C-alpha cells in the first residue's frame, strides 16, 4: 500500500498515522522556508548588520531625552504662568539670578552691546538652561542606576524633579536677595508645580500603556501616553523657545524722531508723554501686579506708619519737572526722558514717623524684590519725592504704580518703582545693582544727543535744516552745546531753550544750510561748571557711558 506524505491534499487519501520510532517528514516548501531569512514586509528596507549598543548607553540616551522633554514642559509652563498671572515666575527669577551672578564688567558689556535685545535673549537662554538642567539631572540619575519597574521609575522621576528644584534654589535666593520674600516662595511653589509632575508622569507610565483605540502618530508608531508626554514636552519647549526667539528678533532701538517738515525740522518735546517715557526694569516679563486697593506703604521709623493710597493723598503734594536717565544709556541713547511728576516730599513722611538716631541710609524695598538706598541728607531735601503721578495722571504700571521714589540728579537706578517699604540703616547699604558693582553714587555724566537728523541719514540739498537734540548734566545744568559738521575741525554754538526746571534736560538747536556732500556730525555739551563733555568713549559699567555722539549724513 502506498503511503500519502503528510501535507498532501486530503483528496489524495487519508494520511496514515505515525508509527512508533518512525521519522516525521515536512513538506518540501516548509523545509525550504525554514532555512530562508524572513521575507521583508511592506516598506521594510535592507537591514545591514549593526552591533547592538550597550544597555547603559541606551538608558542614558533615553534619560537625556526624557529629562529634556521634562525641562521643555517646565519652561513652557513657567512662561505660560508668568504671562497669565504676572507674578514673578521661574524664568524671570532664574534669569535675575544669572544677572546677579554675572560679573559687573561682563554684564555692562552685554548691556552696551545688546541693548534692547538683552532682555529677551536672557529669557531665551534661561529657558534653554532649564531644558539642559532637566536632561543633565535625568541622565545623572540614570547613570547611577535605579531599581527597575514602576516604583523605580517613579522614584527616579521624583528625584529628578526635586533635583531640578534644588539646583535652581540658589539662583532664586540670589535673584530675590534671600528666601524671605513673597516672590521667592511663589517662585519655589511655581517650580515645584511645573517640575515634579512632568517628571513623575514621564517616569511612571509604562511604555506599552497605549492610548484608547491604539492611536498612531504620523510615522505609524504606537502613540503611548509616555510618548504623548514626550512629544508634548518637546513641542511646548520648542514653542516657548520660538516665542522668546521671536521677541529677540522683534526687539530693537526705538525709532529716531523725524522732522515735522522738509525744511526746518522740529524741536524735541520739552516733556515726554507718559506713553513714550523710557522703561527699564530688572523684571524680565514686565512690571509686577500691585493691587492699588490693598496696597500700603510701610515706613519703619521711630513710630511705624502704614499708609494707604488715601493716606498718602492726604499729604500736601508738589509738582516737579525732572529728567530720568538709565545708567546703562549708551552715548546718544534713548534711555532718557523728561517728565512732569507729582508727589509727596519724602521728608514729610520721615517727619511723621521719626528718624532713629545714628541713621546714615534710607532703604527702599519694592514689590518686585528690588532694593535701593539714599543718604539720609538726600532724603530730607524737599525735591526728593514719593511720586504718585506722571504727565497729569496716576503713575502708569510700568513706571511704578502706586508710588515710586523720585530724586533729582541721580541715574534712574536710584529712583525705585513699586515702593512698598521704607526702612533705616546705620551702615552704607548696597542695593540690587550696587551688589553687581555699579556705582552707588549714580551721578550722571554730561550727556548730549541728536534727535534730528538720524544716523546715516540722506537729506535733500538746497534746504535749510534744523539740527536739534537734548542735553543733560544732572543737577549741574547745561551751560552750552556745540556742534561740528566737518569732523571736529570747527565747532558752532547751538541755541539753548530755557529748561523747565533745574532738574530737566535742555533742548538745543542749530540752523544749517548744507551743500551736497558727505558730512561727519558730532555734538558736545558743557555743564554749568565749565566742564566739557568727554570725547573719550567709555562703556556704561560702572558709572554710566561717556563720549560724544557722531553721525554720518549725506546731503543731496
Could you characterize what this model shows?
With about 550 residues, the chain is an alpha+beta fold. The protein has helices at about 30-35, 55-85, 90-100, 105-115, 120-145, 150-175, 180-205, 225-250, 310-315, 345-355, 375-380; strands at about 295-300, 305, 320-325, 335-345, 360-365, 370-375, 385-390, 395, 405, 420-425, 445-450, 455-460, 465-470, 480-485, 490-495, 495, 505-510, 515-525, 550-555. Strand 5 and strand 6 (about 370-375) form a beta hairpin. The longest helix is centred in the N-terminal third of the chain and has 31 residues, at about 55-85. Residues about 1-35, about 55-60, about 145-155, about 205-225 and about 255-265 have low confidence and may be disordered.
Mean pLDDT: 76
Topology as a string of helices (H) and strands (E) = HHHHHHHHEEHEEHEEHEEEEEEEEEEEEE
Q: What percentage of residues falls in helices of 4 or more residues? A: 25-40%
Q: If you compute it from the alpha carbons, what radius of gyration comes out, rounded to the nearest whole angstrom?
A: 35 Å
How many β-strand runs? Answer: 19
**Shape type:** globular
- Uncertain runs are 1-36, 55-59, 146-154, 207-223, 253-264
Structural class: alpha+beta
Q: Tell me the fraction of residues in β-strands, as a range.
A: 15-25%
Sheet of most strands: 5 strands, mixed
Amino acid at each position: 500500500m502506498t503511503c500519502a506524505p503528510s501535507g498532501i491534499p486530503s483528496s489524495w487519501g487519508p494520511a496514515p498515522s505515525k508509527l512508533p520510532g518512525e521519522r516525521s517528514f515536512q513538506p518540501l516548501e516548509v523545509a525550504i522556508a525554514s532555512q530562508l531569512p524572513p521575507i521583508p514586509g511592506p516598506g521594510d528596507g535592507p537591514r545591514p548588520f549593526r552591533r547592538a549598543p550597550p544597555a547603559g548607553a541606551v538608558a542614558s540616551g533615553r534619560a537625556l531625552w526624557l529629562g529634556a522633554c521634562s525641562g521643555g514642559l517646565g519652561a513652557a509652563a513657567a512662561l505660560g504662568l508668568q504671562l497669565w498671572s504676572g507674578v514673578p515666575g521661574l524664568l524671570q527669577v532664574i534669569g535675575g539670578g544669572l544677572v546677579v551672578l554675572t560679573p559687573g564688567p561682563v554684564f555692562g558689556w552685554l548691556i552696551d552691546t545688546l541693548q534692547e535685545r538683552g532682555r529677551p535673549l536672557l529669557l531665551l537662554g534661561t529657558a534653554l538652561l532649564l531644558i539642559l538642567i532637566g536632561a543633565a539631572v535625568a541622565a545623572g540619575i540614570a547613570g547611577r542606576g535605579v531599581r527597575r519597574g514602576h516604583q523605580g521609575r517613579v522614584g527616579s522621576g521624583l528625584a529628578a524633579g526635586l533635583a531640578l528644584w534644588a539646583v535652581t534654589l540658589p539662583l532664586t535666593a540670589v535673584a530675590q536677595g534671600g528666601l524671605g520674600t513673597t516672590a521667592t516662595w511663589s517662585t519655589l511653589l511655581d517650580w515645584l508645580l511645573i517640575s515634579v509632575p512632568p517628571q513623575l508622569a514621564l517616569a511612571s507610565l509604562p511604555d506599552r500603556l497605549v492610548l484608547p483605540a491604539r492611536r498612531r502618530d504620523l510615522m505609524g508608531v504606537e502613540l503611548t501616553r509616555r510618548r504623548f508626554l514626550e512629544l508634548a514636552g518637546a513641542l511646548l519647549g520648542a514653542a516657548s523657545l520660538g516665542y522668546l526667539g521671536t521677541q529677540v528678533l522683534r526687539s530693537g532701538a526705538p525709532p529716531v524722531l523725524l522732522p515735522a517738515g522738509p525744511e526746518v525740522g522740529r524741536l524735541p518735546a520739552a516733556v515726554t508723554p507718559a506713553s513714550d517715557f523710557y522703561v527699564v526694569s530688572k523684571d524680565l516679563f514686565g512690571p509686577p501686579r500691585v493691587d492699588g486697593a490693598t496696597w500700603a506703604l510701610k515706613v519703619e521709623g521711630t513710630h511705624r506708619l502704614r499708609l494707604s493710597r488715601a493716606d498718602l493723598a492726604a499729604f500736601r503734594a508738589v509738582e516737579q519737572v525732572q529728567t530720568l536717565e538709565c545708567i546703562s544709556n549708551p552715548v546718544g541713547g534713548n534711555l532718557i526722558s523728561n517728565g512732569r511728576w507729582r508727589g509727596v516730599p519724602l521728608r514729610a513722611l520721615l517727619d511723621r514717623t521719626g528718624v532713629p538716631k545714628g541713621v546714615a541710609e534710607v532703604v527702599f524695598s519694592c514689590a518686585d524684590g528690588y532694593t535701593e538706598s539714599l543718604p539720609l541728607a538726600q532724603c530730607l531735601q524737599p525735591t526728593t519725592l514719593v511720586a504718585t503721578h506722571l504727565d497729569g495722571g496716576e503713575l502708569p504700571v510700568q513706571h511704578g504704580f502706586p508710588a515710586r521714589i523720585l530724586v533729582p540728579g541721580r541715574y534712574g537706578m536710584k529712583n525705585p518703582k513699586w515702593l512698598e517699604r521704607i526702612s533705616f540703616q546705620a551702615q552704607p547699604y548696597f542695593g540690587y545693582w550696587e551688589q553687581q558693582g555699579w556705582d552707588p553714587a549714580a551721578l550722571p555724566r554730561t550727556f548730549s544727543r541728536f534727535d534730528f537728523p538720524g544716523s546715516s541719514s540722506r537729506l535733500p540739498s538746497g534746504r535749510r535744516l534744523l539740527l536739534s537734540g537734548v542735553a543733560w548734566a544732572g543737577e549741574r545744568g547745561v551751560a552750552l552745546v556745540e556742534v561740528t559738521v566737518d569732523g571736529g575741525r570747527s565747532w558752532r554754538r547751538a541755541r539753548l531753550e530755557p529748561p523747565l526746571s533745574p532738574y530737566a534736560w535742555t533742548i538745543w538747536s542749530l540752523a544749517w544750510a548744507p551743500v551736497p556732500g558727505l558730512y561727519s556730525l558730532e555734538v558736545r555739551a558743557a555743564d554749568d561748571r565749565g566742564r566739557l563733555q568727554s570725547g573719550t568713549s567709555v562703556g556704561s559699567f560702572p558709572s554710566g557711558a561717556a563720549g560724544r555722539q557722531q553721525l554720518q549724513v549725506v546731503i543731496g
